[in-house]
Amino acid sequence: MSLTLCNVHFSDKKDRVVYVSGPLYRSLKLSDKKKLQIKLGRETVTASVKAVKREGNHVFLSSALRQQIRVPKSGNVFMLHASENEVQLGPLVGILSDGYVSSSLPFGSRTGFIKDLIRIGEKKAYFFGFTPKDINWSQETVNGYFLNADGSWYRKTVPLPDVVYNRLPSRKAETGSYISSLRERFVRKGIPFFNWSYFNKSDVYKLLDKDVEALRHLPESVSGPSDAKIKELLEKHHFVYFKPSGGSLGAGIYRLTYQPKQGYFARYRSGGKNVLLRFGTFQALMRTMHARHGSSFGGYVVQQGIRLVEIEGCPLDFRFHMHKNGRNEWVTAGIGAKKAGKGSVTTHIKNGGVLMTPGNALSRTFGSQAGEVLEKAKRVAVKMSEAIERNYPHRLGELGLDLGIDKDGEVWMFEANAKPGRSIFKHPALKPEGRASLEYILEHCLYLSRFRGRDS
């Protein structure tokens, strides 16, 4: 098996001959071959093969060959020499999304990210965007969105992809039976599909409930807590977080505090402002919580509060953006430190939080030990990613971990996101990490699609 970067050209010839430049012809050992099978996705065509005098690695496809296997465009792409008489072009990588706004924004707010990813892959693979309705299962094709050099979109029908990267934009978009069936169909066809679905907050704790390595870094958490359980955790830890299981961006989170001589406190955000309420008894606190959230807390999680390191009296936490690389290993692509706004329950930017680099944040809290603490947090982030993957039934390739570091330098994981946002990469100092994140997605797609040479 060998992997070669080659330049694909189209010709107007009507014959069923593939013309291959001399150096590529020799490296593929085609001198004694009269026929060659050429694959794209699951489409295969058999053609006569001839050498042409041309330096470099070039392949010339006639219009008949191109149309039969639906090659979307000319230019650089990998060629996998998987067996003696077969080469495969690609990989063909589909980015699944939705959210159509207009022809210039076919994937809504995710359009810019998908463009960036296609550009990263454009000289190595055939990256394209698509939506669930673009799939034709009976013909095993996808009417994909490809990118012109000027940044405009054009449509091309291609075979089912070699790998699918799932970026459906919301929990609602992927909860229906059609999307469940779609994912299963890709898997049944042997097409790797990664980032299966969004996590609920309670999902991760259930996954890791018996993983000894992971439990060392998880705050005590209870899904669907009873009033008695909330009281028990408050008396044990003095403050807890009360969160909706399916929430995001810090919406609907409460910080509940118990101070024996002063009573109970609830801090939350409402109407763009931070709110603090005091209650004389636990029963009064619960009456308010039930009035706001129903008689049962089945859709909520209560979690032990951790005394995090602070800057100017405001707690810090960290978003670790994790990826699988080209060797199928978990790596940290980027880290954003988030300082909570004054009086805010969370560190989310929309709630007054401030985004910082981890070096800046940790040097202000741990001084000369900042580097050592950061390396420890990176090791924990890799361990937690491995633990989630170990216990999760579907394929993962990307995670966003929300970690906290307490004043003793211990590392805690509060949440894991299966389809993390990319807001940390908006920080000017983290733009190189944003590009590295895209490169890791490309690398992992090459790995999953088996576009790997002997040494990979």
Q: How are the secondary structure elements laid out?
A:
Elements: E1 2-10, E2 17-21, H1 22-27, E3 35-40, E4 43-52, E5 58-61, H2 63-69, E6 75-83, E7 86-90, E8 92-96, H3 111-121, E9 126-130, E10 135-136, E11 141-147, E12 153-159, E13 163-166, H4 177-188, E14 193-194, H5 201-207, H6 212-215, E15 221-223, H7 227-237, E16 239-244, E17 254-259, E18 263-270, E19 273-279, H8 282-293, E20 300-304, E21 310-311, E22 314-324, E23 330-339, E24 354-356, H9 358-366, H10 370-391, E25 398-405, E26 411-417, H11 431-448
What does this structure look like?
It is a single chain. The chain has about 450 residues and is an alpha+beta fold. It is about 25% helix and about 35% strand. It has helices spanning about 20-25, 65-70, 110-120, 175-190, 200-205, 210-215, 225-235, 280-295, 360-365, 370-390, 430-450; strands at about 1-10, 15-20, 35-40, 45-50, 60, 75-85, 85-90, 90-95, 125-130, 135, 140-145, 155-160, 165, 195, 220-225, 240-245, 255-260, 265-270, 275-280, 300-305, 310, 315-325, 330-340, 355, 400-405, 410-415. The chain has a 7-stranded mixed β-barrel. It has a 6-stranded antiparallel β-sheet with strand order 15-20-16-17-18-19, with helices on both faces. Strand 3 (about 35-40) and strand 4 (about 45-50) form a beta hairpin. Helix 3 crosses helix 11 (about 430-450) and helix 9 packs across helix 10. It is elongated and about 90 Å long. The relative contact order is 0.11.
